[in-house]
Backbone:
């Protein structure tokens, strides 16, 4: 036969598994529901100042 089993070939059970589907934007929660909002780009300086500010 022309079908040779390769030592590194994945078993058929792994080949039959469904491929992981990427999350569609519709499944993601709206930005308002996210626990932490990313700071706007114009707040980068404020964020840096906050990180470098002395903490109590």
Residues:
């Amino acid at each position: 036969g022309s079908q040779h089993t390769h030592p590194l070939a994945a078993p058929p059970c792994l080949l039959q598994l469904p491929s992981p589907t990427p999350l569609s934007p519709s499944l993601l929660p709206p930005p308002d529901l996210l626990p932490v909002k990313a700071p706007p780009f114009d707040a980068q300086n404020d964020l840096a100042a906050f990180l470098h500010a002395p903490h109590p």
